[in-house]
Each structure stands twice: as C-alpha cells, then as structure tokens.
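Record type: monomer structure entry
Structure origin: computed from sequence
Chain ID: A
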Amino acid sequence: MSPGLAAACVGLSLGAGLILPDSPLWGESGPIGSPGRAAVCILAGVGLLAAGWLYSLLFCPLELLRGLDVGYIAEDGRSRAQAANDVRRRRKTGELPPVYPNGWYRLLDSHLLHRGQVQHVSALGEQLAVFRGHDGKAYVLDAYCPHLGANLAVGGRVIGSCIECPFHGWQFSGDDGKCVRIPYAKKVPEFAKVRSWPSCEVNRQILVWFHCDGEEPQWTVPEQQEITKGQWVYRGRTEHFINAHIQEIPENAADIAHLAHLHTPGIVSGVDLRYTNSKIWEFVRHDWKVQWEPESEPNRHCSQMLVKHSLTLFGLHWHLLDVDVVARQVGPGMVFLLFDHSYLGRGVILHCVTPVEPLLQCVSHAIFYQSNILPLVPKFILKAECIQFERDVMIWNNKKYLTKPLLVKEDSAIQKHRRWFSQFYSENSPQLRYQCDSLDF
C-alpha cells in the first residue's frame, strides 16, 4: 500500500470512529449535536485524504502506465479502442526493415521482481519467464516447458536458482536452462532443457540480449554510477504501447524539423494534435536546438543527440528554465536522457523500447534524480516528457513507414540515422511476413 493511500485509509477510519455514538472522543452526549459531529468528522476525513494526496504528489514516485489506445481519435460514438482497431486494420505498413534488431532490451524494472518471484513477459515475439532466484540474481528463460508446454511463469515456483514447472514439477536451471530434476524419473535426459537468454541487470533494470543468429552480446550497457551508488533515486516511470515499427521511434532523434512543428506548443496544450496549436495556449512556447551525431569506434553502436531547450512565456524568455539535455542512444532499444541544470539538479530518464510483436513496441521512461532535490521536480519533468511523447505516439500510431521518403537537404540527418541504425540488422534478421486477420485488443 502506498503512503498516500495509507493516509487516506487512516482518515476514513478516524472519520468512521468519530461518528460512532459510543466513541470515547465524544462521551455520552458529545460536545455538539449530531449534525455538527458529522460535519467535523467529514472535514477531518477530507483533510486527511487531502494530506495523503499531497504526500503522494510530493514524495511518491509518479507512475503513468498507458493502454494500447493512446494516440487515436474516437469519433461517431466509437470508443478509442474501437478507433485503434479500425486504424490497425486499414493502415498500410509499407516496406518494412527487419522487425527485431540485434541488441539489448528492457524486460522489467528491478523493483518489480522480488526474490523467489517469477513474471511472464512478452517480448521479441517470444513468451519469457523472468524470475529472481533466492540468490538474488535475475534469470530469463523461454516460458514454455518442453515436456508438455506448460507456462513456467504462470504458477511456476522458484527453487534456489531454478524454476519449477507447475504441471509436473520439472525443474530448470536459470543459468543454462537445463532440466536438473524430474520428480518421478530416475534419470534426467541430457537434451531436456529450455532456452536460456543472455541477460543482465544494470541501472535497476533487467535486460535481455537478442541476436537473430544467436551470437553472444557484442557490447555492454553502460552503468550509471549515480544510480548504482544511490545518489540518484527512482522517482517514477511511464509506459506506452505503440503500434509502429521499432525504427520509427529512435529515428525521431534525427528528425530535427519535427521538433519545431510538433513540440513547440507548450505542454498545457495537451496531446491531441487537433488542438495543440490553439491560440488559447500561445502564451507558452518551447524552443529547441538539436544536433544528432553517431559515435565512432569502439562505440559505433552509440549515438548522441544534444538538446538545448528554452521556454517563452508571454513573449519573454525565461532563462531559469533553460535545460541542456544529452540523449545518448545505446543500441536499438535504449536511450540515456541526461539532465544537468544549475537550479533543478541532475538526473537521467532511461528511455527503453522493447518490441513485443513486429509492429507493437513497449516504451518506458524511468526517471532517476538527485536524492536531495524535491521529488516534485523530477516528477514534473517526467510528466512534461510524457505529454510531449504522446504527441509523437499519435503520429506513430497512424503513419506509414516509407523506405524511400521524400526528403529535402535539411532532412539529411534522417538518412544518416538510417545508415547508422542498419548495423543492428543481420542477413537473418526476422522480417514481417504476414499480418493476422484480426489485430483487435
């Protein structure tokens, strides 16, 4: 239970106690009549509810977990889910690059997986069992037992560094996926095993390595020392599901022109692109200066976007809100958004893109910030990032991928980014071969 919710429950409990006729706080007849007593109780309960809400606002992590229907326009009485399904059915996908680039991908945040716990995760077109052994280490295996196909993550039990199948009790080692025990068999066959995925836990996230040819990891994910040492603490996360090819999302870093058009309106304008340019909100404007460049060897798998952000209110430039951000992309699925501000402090947003299916991406933003900065600051930054990001979601969910887009000279960074991103594809990288008859959710 969160502290804010706990405070709310206390408020309601106290309020209930105050209005009981035999409450010792009131005596036999009470200092005031029943109507006055009830009013005091209601005010006390509301006050404590407000205190709980305020505590949650100021000190608890902000968690915004969005559904599959963000970024669609619902008209003619339809729900957004119906509108989303209609768009997904009729949208042309275009000629797509391979759907699963080689690289590291986030599966879970570390705090979501406790010792002895297992979770089922869908990623890269696979069903995975992610569990934390009693040794504290996180393991990733294919979810389906090779015996009779039971899902190890649904009812499976963690025993030491192994997971036990809920169907017949077969136990599989987290290290290599080999079956180490069959409770009713005298001997375990040598070939009895489930696929074990290379994984790591860094920056308080559990990551998995994917390579279409089964090659071992070709680089490591950089460790953010401030997170490891506890100098930067977790202040919240957002999560979105986007109906697009994975390459569309990081390509935004090189699409410099879209910032001035899509992201200039202030965050008070909201996320619905039909209204973000309303004259009502013209008093607040964002200004962006951006440069994107790939890095050289030995960090060829990395790139950097340098962002200078400024804010204009009623035509006046507010220098206090100028922010410099270094966005460093590591592989196809992870970006470190590093903030450094003289007054607002330092921190990072870990932006992670994980393919769930060929045209369905799970995107998370987890923010870690200086522990001595009021939590309201990073939570505001995360909320502002969420608003700007959902404007992009509305574009991605409705657009078509163009292999040969019509570009002008000023768009040259987009082609440069595509050449850089192509290193994460191999000859055998999986392609989208067909679409299901129904994509409803």
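Annotation 1: Residues 302 and 330 are 5 Å apart (CA to CA).
Annotation 2: Confidence is low (pLDDT under 50) at residues 1-31, 435-441.
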